[in-house]
Amino acid sequence: MDINSLLSPSDDYSSPANPSASPRPSSRPAFIDTDSNSPIHSGHTSNTTPASNPRQSPLKVNEASTSKPFSASGMSGPSEQVRDEVMTGGDDGDVAAAVAVGDGIGAAYEVVMEDVSDGDENEVAAPIPLSEEDYTRIADLLVSITNRPYQYESHVEYISLLRRGFLAHQADPREVEPYPLIKDLRKAREDMIERFPLNETMWAEWIADEIFICGGLEERLGVMELCAKAVEEESASVRLWKTYAEYIESQYSLGRDGDAVGKGKAKKVILSEEEEITLKGCFTLELVVETYRLGSLATKDNIAESHVLWDKYRDLMMMDLEANPTPPKVEFIRNLYVARLQIPHTTISDTFSEFSTFITRYDNANYESIMVSTNRLYAVALAKYNERSIHEDRLAKRGQVSLIEEWNAWAEYLEWETSQPKKKLDIDMACALYERCLLCFGEQARIWEEYVFFALEKSLGPRVKALLKRATRHCPWSGTLWAQYIIALERAYRPFEEVSEIKHRATTTGMLDLGGLEEVLKVNIAWCGFLKRRAFEHDAGEDDFDMAEMGISEAVTETGKKDPAYRLQRIHINFCTLAKKLDSAREIWKELAKTQGDSYEYWLRYYHWELSHGPKDKDYAGSTLKAALRRSTLDWPEKILETWKNHVEDFGNVEDVEYATVRYRKLSKEYSERRAQEAREIALQQQQAKDQQQEEDTPQTDGSARASSKRRRSVAEADDSQPKKKSKAVETLATEKPAAHLPPLASSVAKRDRENTTVIVKNLPPNCPEVRVRQFFRDCGTINSLKLIVEKDGKTSTATVEFESREDVLTAQTKNLKIVDGHSIEVQVGTRSTLYVTNFPPIADEAYIRDLFKDCGEIVDVRFPSLKYNTHRRFCYVQFASSDEAQKATSLHGKQLGGKESLMAKISAPDQKHERSGAVYEGREVYIRNIDFQAHDNDVQELFQKYGRIEKVRLPPGPKKGTHKGYGFVTFSTKEEALAAVEGANNTQLKSRTLIVSIADPNPSKQKTTNTNPSAEKTRDSTSGRNMDRPRQKSLGPANSATSPQQASVPAFSDIKKKTLGIMNLPDTVNDTKIRQIFEKHGPLRKVTLRPDHQGAIVEYESVADAGKATLALDGFELAGRKIKIGELADLMRQSPEKKVTKGFPTNNGDSKGGAVAFKPNQVNAGAGGMKGQKRRAGLGFSGAVRKKDDADVGKSEDTVMVDRPPAREAPKAKSNADFKAMFLRK
């Protein structure tokens, strides 16, 4: 049975002159009444005529209030509109906002009135009186708000200062006069609510202040109006509903007994007899019950707090039942319990127990059948609660955890709730969870956006429009919300004037500009789309068409020209096309060529438009492609060239096809040469910048610097005819400098001593920007890096600042206890706050490391090494906010990760080098080459076990499952056993191959850019110097008679190329294991080769189909903070090495422009722009160097050779840039 049906609405109102009525302000909507079928009777009536109302607004009264027991008519309580919106989600009328900005602004003001007999009200702790500076600030803020009324922070600060003065005035026993600025405080709040919503705390403060000073009848009715407005704005707030109901209850108690009890009391003021009669007529028991009832309905899905209001409402019902038991009342409360037990809530077990007691007392004869049927409903609700209890427990820790942890708890809870399967998803509970979250984070537009799109996805109908109205009020800077609001109104067929008003509100306040140009464009795109569709509806008139044409043109003029994606212009073109104004549309296309002419996408769009809407003669469409090809700065001319060729083949005659074929061949060659030239220029510029940086970083006296420069110049000039030997000669000469002027060797000191050049800065402001910290420490020395984190309490933040030298750190320590934006900071040396971590799984990434150490403290940064010069490195550094946290993290040292890895986690101390240990360093490991591919671990074990006790046999796995790479390692228990194995097993036969056995080298020659197997490298080296144009001969002899399955037949290069992918825009910290893990999901891999010198990797599949699937699935896949791009091998080889900033401000490598070199050469040119000839102290540095060309590179293409070969070192300044290029290109 529906509970609401027992309390139906009644709008029987009449004039204020009715002698039996209780007055209510007419400034709010009518309220819900209960009809005569209600089983509850108040036992209280009033037949006394109230005095005329002194308030300005007229009062409405209910003629039937004496004839309807427990009638809520005439009450100044929650509106019928609020009740309907709680049940249906709102309608087309005014909708009460239900979500607050949250508790982020202003201190919470709790009304402390637990003891009903103490008489103290609204106790607050020692407010600080306003100073002269505060009064000056108040005046300044008033001027600022008057001139710029949409400054949110100014409104908040203005109200905060006025309220602080109010609290100080009320707390001062010497003050007998009213607070002189109380009218200003009220007006400030009213002005703010006209433009911005108040959050839950601000509403509570306002209500508490008014309760504190209200005395007469008019003021008490004003507080009731204020409470009603608060719950209309924040209908999901249990706190505000409770405050409202308790205030009504206290006034009812005052009118009945002469004393107010409970929370929400107003101060005691002697009322006249007429005012007392009116007070009793306004604040009735019916109103108390109705307020609690509507509050319990509005918050019924709040799992954590809904019991606060529902329990009170149930208790009032039970009191009436106990006073006058009747069957209708018993049935009503039973249905109340049954409905409640179907809703998950924190006290559901207590509710079920209390229901059992109720049935025992009032319907014991049917106890078993009632409890059995109810238990089924209860079990379902209890299961729902148990599923959510873990999330509710996390939310219950609010105030005890950091703001970030609280945000994460809400995000994970919402993600879980809204991602439930369709049969299990509870939409009402999901919406209630969004409402609860918005009470805390109502200023976060992303939550509103997620809520809106969830409602759209679930087709919640009228609720969406009400939701968007509230969302745009709370986040007026979100273009997404305003745009969706316009679309929702259009879909609801709202009048043009209403949609226009929303667009006007969005764009005229200036708040939308805070979100940036993109947010303004979103609104204009939605608005122009609405105008366009409206102009071509079946019943549209000329005015609609003219309005659309004018509105779209205006939007394009205002913001469209700033949009790099020219979205508004495209809408305008679409409008003109639909209007058959093809010439106007074509003019827009041509005008766009001035700004978009370098974009191949623009030309393709223009071409397709001409193809569809242009003249029947398709030559006009083809002419657009010819115009594009005439541009030398086009970003992807190959795409346009291919499209033009296809166009001619589709629509041209034989002469056109012949001409296009010749032209296509010529242009293709030109573009290829241009790409190669650009790649060579970039490589030259990068090498010059690197050489210049190295010279600036090398400490020299003036004399030695000049002498060194002369020596380098003489060698460079003498070797102009031998560019390949030049760099080596220069390097050799550089090493001949006097020892006194040489920098320390890399083996003796760390290149970058982060552990001893880092300071930890604590107690910074919570929202302190990075640039502010840099400015504060800029006079201390060069800052290499800076990281900021917000502490758990959300009140302060901590920064770690890495300087260039230890002397800079000493200078930075003088900043200790200085004031930064009102905070006294602490500066501590960050020594021993960095952890060196290694021996973790190969697939581990930053998220894995952070999760591993999450319980040890605040992690500031996780740094993985570059794999540019050694692709097998596997370690990282974890920077903590303090040395104590880092020391705590060392407790994980030795932890088993998986089945093999034993974690190493130690405090990083680069100046304390330790001798390495382990089998390979102790000489107990032997290295075996030329192992037969048919041999297995047990074969090797059987052969070597006679030389001693074997601890481990390892054959690195091959590309196919069950194969190996032809070499392996055997670990013995002692060094002597390993030596015996080398002596005895070397040159012995295993199956069809002769083994080569040696002691494993702890420091083998490292591959610079690839992780291919050693046999491949050996083959390449052995062929160095040969004529690579001649086919490679097959090896003969017994040693090679048995080959692996994958070597049985050598596929053609064209076949390998089809199944080989070039992975671009790949960070040089990602290893091959991680890449293999991602790509092998789409098919078996043959080879994975890292190419960090080209910002990528090479992945070769066993089949072409798998390579195609991987391309479709993984192109744009985000890996280590970047979106990778997949192309061909040639595309990858055009990539230049990654440039890293080691000092100053970091750059965003997440979307490296260098990664698009194969597609957009104009971006390639920009890659190293401005670097040549610059002198920068501690400026940009480039990590790594371009790989030197060796003899094995003879057979490579020109492009590859020019990219891989290092350019000549920087010549003397007397030479020009043209001289550099000539030296570099000379063959």
TrEMBL record:
Biased composition (Low complexity): 1-29
Record GO cellular component, one term: U6 snRNP
Renumbered residue ranges of the record's region Disordered: 1-91, 678-753, 998-1053, 1139-1227
Main location: nucleus
InterPro entries given in the database record: Euk_RNA-bind_prot (IPR050502), HAT (IPR003107), Nucleotide-bd_a/b_plait_sf (IPR012677), Prp24_RRM1 (IPR034397), Prp24_RRM2 (IPR034398), RBD_domain_sf (IPR035979), RRM_dom (IPR000504), RRM_euk-type (IPR003954)
Residue stretches of biased makeup (Basic and acidic residues): 1017-1032, 1187-1199, 1206-1218
SUPFAM superfamilies registered for this protein in UniProt: RNA-binding domain, RBD, TPR-like
Keyword Nucleus: yes
Composition bias, Polar residues: 34-56, 63-79, 1004-1016, 1038-1049
UniProt-annotated location(s): Nucleus
Domain (RRM): residue spans on this chain: 757-832, 833-910, 924-1002, 1059-1131
Stored Pfam families: RRM_1, RRM_occluded, Suf
Keyword tags: mRNA processing, mRNA splicing, Nucleus, Repeat, RNA-binding
One of the protein's GO biological processes: RNA splicing
Listed GO MF terms: mRNA binding
The protein's role, per its UniProt record: Component of the cleavage factor IA (CFIA) complex, which is involved in the endonucleolytic cleavage during polyadenylation-dependent pre-mRNA 3'-end formation. Functions as a recycling factor of the spliceosome, a machinery that forms on each precursor-messenger RNA (pre-mRNA) and catalyzes the removal of introns. Chaperones the re-annealing of U4 and U6 snRNAs (small nuclear RNAs) released from previous rounds of splicing, an initial step in reforming the U4/U6-U5 tri-snRNP (small nuclear ribonucleoprotein) that can reassemble into another spliceosome complex; this step involves binding U6 and facilitating the unwinding of the U6 internal stem loop, followed by base-pairing of U6 to U4.
Name the UniProt record assigns to this protein: U4/U6 snRNA-associated-splicing factor PRP24
Species for this entry: Tuber borchii (White truffle)
Top-level taxonomy: Eukaryota, Fungi, Dikarya, Ascomycota, Pezizomycotina
